[in-house]
Amino acid sequence: MPNSEFTRNEIETGRRLFAADWQFVAAASSDVSLPLMRGVEIAFAGRSNVGKSSLVNALTGRKALARTSHTPGRTQELIFFTGGSTLNIVDMPGYGYAAAAKSKVAAWTALIGAYLRGRANLARVYVLVDARHGLKDTDDLIFEELRQAAVSFQIVLTKADAIKASELKDRAAEVEAALAKRPGAFPGVLTTSSHEGTGMEELRAAIARLLAERKR
Length: 216
What we know:
Elements: H1 8-18, E1 23-28, E2 40-46, H2 52-60, E3 78-82, E4 87-91, H3 102-118, E5 122-130, H4 139-149, E6 153-158, H5 165-179, E7 190-191, H6 200-215
């Protein structure tokens, strides 16, 4: 989704939205430890090592707001952040790590299912996909949970700087085609690079538009 898809007002609103003083709120490992609902929530989901924490840091302009790790599957909690306004961010635990025990996968599924079905203030889940690899069978896990919970989601390609522009265009088209079969998918694929900061302006504007639409 190119910059031209957004108005100047949406881009500026998105910039101000994420220029706030973002802070850690809570970490939840079970449904009983989820913080009280407040404002509007958006969540970021994705396979282990897809770059969720790096994206949250780049989006908010904070180098260490979300903890990054080189060990896939390390984060097994829902991490909540707030900018002090109506918007709250949730960094969901990564999935699809091959070495994860079945018990850990079951615990992840239970936690995510409880979260998605129990948050009336959840506006959208952004599912992160590594631009180098595209969709994988393991992504079906979150897609199924989202379908059952009737939660809207949109795909965000990460690490866009790691492949050629022509490959990135083809990857985005490939993902869009695959999602056409999923009614819960919001149209359009956003491309980002946390390393270079590209695509962050568009992602912020997309979120600002989402918040504006929820007020109507």
